[in-house]
Write the structure tokens for this entry.
Amino acid sequence: MSAEIISGTAMRAEILDELKQEVAAMQEKHGKTPGLVTILVGENPASVSYVTLKVKTALGLGFHEIQDNQPESISEQALLELIEKYNQDDDIHGILVQLPLPDHIDEKKVLNAISPDKDVDGFHPVNLGRMVIGGDEIRYLPCTPAGIQEMITRSGTETAGAEVVVVGRSNIVGKPIAVMMGQKGPGANSTVTMVHTRTKDLDEHCRRADILIVAAGVPGLVKPEWIKPGATVIDVGVNRVGVSEKTGRAILSGDVDFEAASKVAGKITPVPGGVGPMTITMLMKNTVKSAWFHLENKQNDAA
Ligand code: GUN
């Protein structure tokens, strides 16, 4: 048996197309397009490449995009003031501060300074709290978990009553996706188990999973014999396992042994080209959502 590949690259194209139509409708109705500011502090090469891709995607959708690059030496206070400036700017609907930040800046303080209404990364405690409450309370879901859920539903995987096992308990992937899959509602209603480094019999839990989500950051952690035949496997791991002699670029590998797992799973995401492209796509989706909210609902919400 060979698993169906769930391609994040193909889904990205599909979703960006849908967003492009929304942006056109917004332009027509309000004479405005979504505004996103990306704040990059310093020149960490991985961050530069992530931000470049975010900016390119935003511009491709016709967003009003501000790329605000700041030197590594910027003070915490100056960064907080910059965020406040964008909090007050009516043409900016989404504020993204690329992580990690230099050691002299308190990351938590910075993320908490972003207005929850413009927190398109979905990292602010208010938005995480709204996510836990669920239903109409939800504003911005964190982008990687949102992308995972989208991939599961768009691939036609049944989630209601499914056994979901999440490997990993990080704040940005494991914890939120575990909550989201257990919520009432479409693309959820699952029975969720979250496992981690202190879990006994990790393999036994994985074997039960109809949907196995792996976000451990350990290359090849999940062995093919841990996978239930026909299961949907979502591999969130992006591990640099070497450098290509040909291109000089990093060779990436997931947390699942893809070749072997594809012979057992029903559906599986590749690395690269799986969850990765969906994260930026969900950032764009959150920014469009924020723009609609600011252009149409803000007064209602304040009332
Ligand atoms: N650094 C790595 N991934 C992310 C992300 O999703 N958002 C932000 N703001 N920084 C990151």
Remarks:
- The radius of gyration is 20 Å.
